[in-house]
Amino acid sequence: MTGPPPTILVADDEQDIRELVAYRLRRAGYTVVQARDGEEAFQLVTGQVPDMAVLDVMMPRLSGFELTQRFRATQATQRMPVLLMSASVQEADISRGLEAGADGYLTKPFSPDELLARVEDLLTRRLA
Amino acid sequence: MKRGLTLRALLASLILGAVVVGGFVVLTVAYVNLHNEEQHDNRTDNVLVTSDALKESVLNLETGLRGYLLSGKPLFLQPYQAASTGYPVQARELAALTAGDPALHARALRLGAEVRSYVRTWTGPVIRLSRSSLAAGRRAEAGGGGRRRVDAISRQFTVLNDQVVALTAAQRSASGQTVTLTFVLGLAGFLLSVILIAMFAVALHRSVVLPVHRLAAAMGRLRRGDLSARVPVRGAAEIGELAAGFNSMAGALEAGRDEVEQQNNKLQGQRIELERVLVSVQQQKDRAQGRQRFSARLAGQRGVEALAQVSLREIADQAAAQVGAVYVLNEQTGALTCRAARGVRATDFPAGLVPGEGLAGRAVAERRPVAGSSPETSLRLPPLTGGRAVRHELHLPLQHRDQVIGVLSLGRSADAPFGEAEIAALTELTESAALACAEALSLRRLETVATELQSLMDATDEGIYRRDLSGRITFINQAALDQTGYTADELLGQDAHQMLHHSHPDGSPLPAADCPLLRVVHERAGARFQGDVFWRQDGSPFPVDWSAFPLFDGDTVTGVVVSFRDTSDARLAEHQRAVQYQTARLLAEADSVADVAPQVLALLSEQLGWQICIAWRVSADGRELHCTAAHAQPGHGDQLALLSHETVTMGQGTAGQAWLSREPAATPAGQPAEVAIPIVREGRLAAVIQLVGNQNPRMEGLAETIQTIAAQLAQFADRKESDAAAARIKDQFVATVSHELRTPLAAMDGWLHILLDGDPGPLNADQRKFLTTIKRNSDRLMRLVGDLLLIGQMDAGRLSLELGQVDLAELVAETAALFAGPAAEKNIELTAVTGPGALVSGDRLRLGQLLSNLVSNAVKFTPEGGQVRVSVVEHGGSGQVQVSDSGVGIPPGERARLFERFYRASTASGTAGSGLGLAISRALAQAHGGTLRLADSAGPGTTFILDIPLLVGTKARL
User: Fold this and answer.
1) Residue percentage of chain B with pLDDT more than 70
2) Which of A112, B179, B732, B873 qualifies as a cystine partner to A24, CB 3.0-4.6 A?
3) What is the spatial distance between Cα B781 and Cα B292, in angstroms, rounded to a whole number?
4) From edge to edge, which strands make up the β-sheet containing B473-476?
């Protein structure tokens, strides 16, 4: 991999989870931008578009679904890979997320390795 | 050897016969001898006579010649002439007479010849010479030649005679001896015969006559009645047998006589018995006649009361009873009530009788006559006339078949108890009375039934008529008259088919010979018919469902009863019910009211015959009705379009009127049929259903039908609403739990991972051990939450499977690999036996979870050093996974409960677990169309068997 390390947006209102994800990604060499909710995440992205986003579904103000839809509706982030995380294993939630435009869905709990594998997979696909 | 009497008699006769024949032969021989002798004597005499005659002829010849010669006169020749013609005859005679004796015969012949020669050679020539010369003749004579010849001849005669005499004497002597012998022999034969006959007589006497005499004597004794007479068994042959036969006959007679005497004794006994029976029969006959007379009197009565009174009078007369009463069952009340009384007013008797109470009650309860005497008399009477009290009473139950229908009580004041025979006689009369009363009761019952039947016939709405075998109506009820419009007089006696039922439903003629009713008569079985038409008096048809049943008298069909119902209304009700039923069916599969509304309207249209059906709803502003759903029959689409595009204001048209009045509204008669029915829910108008155009509008029950359907729809909507709400709540709960429990767990899990990965820095042994403990418990909590969520989803019916092709063999191998570590820790031998592959349709994750549960359990419950074996085979179209362990096993009593939620086997107490694993596993197996069960195993250990249907077309791969 050449150039600067990819930047990943991690948005989750649960600080413990958000920091866990950020920690793991940073340890893997990514640059991580953190947001506490959907609204904040969207604000952050308008400044500089990250290489991809890892979003919790259930966030105050703006849910992961809505945020994804908004990303898709915005020119700059239209093609940015989005990985949704949720504690819900409901089929309906998963399909709703994919309908909203997400590229992957991760149910909690997940192992750090699984997270890394999915992130790398999405980044590779984007480049391809 | 015993010789028969016949043989003996024959033998004796033969001997006797032989002796007699012998004697006879001897006598005959003697007689013949004598006879021969006599003949011989005669012949000898004849010889002597003849020889004398011949000698005389010779002498005549000589003397004649000499006379002639001496006298010379031919006269003296006469003797000569006679002799010369006679001697040849005499000579021949002599020869013949001596033929029996040759010597004599020869001498006779010679004598004849010498005489002939004397004539021819002497006398003849001398005579002829003398005729010519007498002298010459005399000289010849004188020569003496003639004389010598005659002398010679005479000597010859003498010899002959001497010979004859000698012969005769000899013969006489011989015959005398013969006669003597014969006499001796005859005498001897005679004597022998006499002796033999005497012997025979003696023998006959001894062997036949005596025994026969004895027999005759014994027979005489027998005849005189002395059956002990016997004879000695002596006597020859058959006679002996006769005696033996006689003895045995006498013995038999004696035995027979003894038997006959016994028989006689018996017969005597029987005769006495017979006489006794005859007397008894006569008595019975008298009683029967009495009973007959009694029955005849009863037969003249009608009604239970009359019968009771006659019975009481007759029976009481017979019994010389001064008082009495008859209680008979009252069919309405079931009580025994007084129907007749004697000696006392009926009202003085107790009105009713309680079985078992008092003597009469006992007679009823015990079903037998009950008699009583003064101390226990229970006829509760006021003092009898004349102050005489009832001394003896008798209560006779009136029984018919098995039922006691009453009791007849008698009382008499005379001191004469009711005897057994008297009771028997009275009982018989009572039986007749009971029979008559029972018949009267039956008759009354029949009359009641007949009356009730008539009432029933008139009360029912079904038309009913009865027709005889010729088809004529013999009975018809009011409902049938009402439905057909005829009067009874118009139909009774008429041909039912011609009057009522002469066409097919389409109106084409139905010949009487084709009427299905004939089949009912023929097959002797009832039948029901639907969709037929009958005809009214005014010539109009009406639809009927009808049935016909044969009427029997015994075994013979005597007629048919037909019942029919005008189905015009029934048909309508049926259609209305059909709409409701089909609506319910539509709703069972529908998601929302909006989905089914058009279909329901279509049902109304088709079933009830309306061309257009429209559902109206009040608009949001409450000012108008808008069409929400509609249906039109083919060809009425334009009209529907026109109607449904308009809005309706309150009071406008039928729909508007129904809105306004909240009552069904219809166009006046004569106008095109249109009806509108309001549907009101919770005080508000929910909708108006408008129905337009019907050839034959029927309003009965229409509003009710539509309102019922509306209620069905509303109920459906409510149910859908509450279902959805419940599902929403459940989903919410699941989502909340999911999020609220899993989020902190996920954070814990993630950070533990990072620590254990050694990312923030190396860990010492204790730190690692403690963190591992935390991690294990965190995992366990996570699994529990996961299981709970899964069960929640299953209960909500929201378990979603991501179906794909899953290779069970591969999955089993993976799962086994997953547990290789834990198994190795416990030194358990974990083996996976997998075939080439078993493709099933399933959710890989869930199937993996299922297998993990099973293998995890197996490892968990198997002690150290044990075995766990996982295998995949094809079995009956399924991929079958067997997980066996050598663990503690499941106690038999707990096997059934093993798959229940939160159930943990008693043997699992030492190990951690929620008790949800097997319940979830089984649910997952079932969600995949498979099964999970516990194998029946006798030994230790446990085997779980999972069957998941193979993908079609992949069976060959296993």
Assistant:
1) 94
2) A112
3) 105
4) B473-476, B463-468, B556-566, B541-553, B527-535
Q: Are B95 and B66 in contact (CB under 8 A)?
A: no
Which of B603, B283, B307, B627 lies closest to B437, judged by CA?
B307
CB atoms within 10 A of CB B764: 7
As a whole number of angstroms, the distance between CA A90 and CA A83 comes to 16
- Show the CA angle centred on residue B827, arms to residues B821 and B828, nearest 5°: 80
The SS3 of residue B877 is coil
Residue contact B746–A109, C-beta within 8 A: yes
Q: Are B744 and A16 a contacting pair at CB < 8 A?
A: yes
Query: How are beta strands A82-86 and A52-56 bridged, if at all?
Result: parallel
Binned at pLDDT 50, 70 and 90, residue B377 comes out as: low
- Name the amino acid, one letter, at B39: Q
CA pair distance A18, A3, nearest whole angstrom: 26
User: Is a pLDDT exceeding 60 seen at residue B1?
Assistant: no
Quick one: tokens of B296? Answer: 């005849």
B885, β-bridge pairs: B868, B942
C-alpha pair distances (Å), A19 with each of A35, A36, B10: 10, 10, 165
Q: What is residue A94's three-state secondary structure? A: helix
Instruction: Return the ∠ at Cα B853 (arms to B849 and B857), rounded to 5°.
Output: 165
Taking an 8 Å cut-off on Cβ atoms, the answer to whether A89 and B789 are in contact is yes
Question: Looking at residue B956, what is its pLDDT?
Answer: 41
Across chain B, mean pLDDT equals: 83
DSSP symbol at B417: P
Q: Is B930 helix (H, G, I), strand (E, B) or coil?
A: coil
Q: How far is B706 from chain A (nearest CA, A)?
A: 39
B800 vs A: CB within 8 A: yes
Q: Give helix B5-71 / helix B78-97 axis angle, nearest 10°.
A: 160
Residues of chain A with Cβ-Cβ distance to B742 below 8 Å are 87, 108-109
Instruction: Give the gap in angstroms from C-alpha A6 to the nearest C-alpha of chain B.
Output: 21
As a whole number of angstroms, the distance between CA A13 and CA A55 comes to 10
Q: Is B91 left (phi over 0), alpha (psi -120 to 50) or beta?
A: alpha
If residue B545 lies in a helix (H) or strand (E), which one and from where to where? strand B541-553
d(CA B745, CA B757): 18
Q: What is the CA radius of gyration of chain B?
A: 78
Could you tell me the maximum CA-CA distance found in chain A, to the nearest angstrom?
A: 39
pLDDT digits (tens, 9 = 90+) for B11-22: 888 888 888 888
Burial, B406: exposed, middle or buried (Cβ in 10 Å; 0-12, 13-18, 19+)? buried
Give CA separation, B198 vs B10, B209, B210, in Å.
16, 15, 16
Are A89 and B738 in contact (CB < 8 Å)? yes
Four-point Cα dihedral B179, B182, B187, B192, nearest 10: 180
pLDDT value of position B379: 56
User: A75 — alpha (psi -120 to 50), left (phi > 0) or beta?
Assistant: alpha
Q: What value does the mean pLDDT take over residues B162-190?
A: 80
Are the Cβ atoms of A112 and B750 closer than 8 angstroms?
yes
State yes or no: pLDDT of B344 exceeds 80. no
Q: What 3-state class would DSSP assign to B15?
A: helix
The closest alpha carbon to B811, from B844, B857, B860, B853, belongs to B844
DSSP state of B509: B
The three-state (H, E, C) secondary structure of B438-473, written as one string: HHHHHHHHHHHHHHHHHHHHHHCCCEEEEEECCCEE
- Residues B921-953: pLDDT tens digits? 988 898 888 999 888 766 678 899 999 988 875
Q: State residue A83's pLDDT score.
A: 93
Minimal CA–CA distance to B66: which of B149, B126, B121, B13?
Answer: B126
Per-residue tokens: B538 = 């005014």
Which of A12, A16, A115 to probe by mutation at the B interface, max B CB count within 10 Å?
A: A16
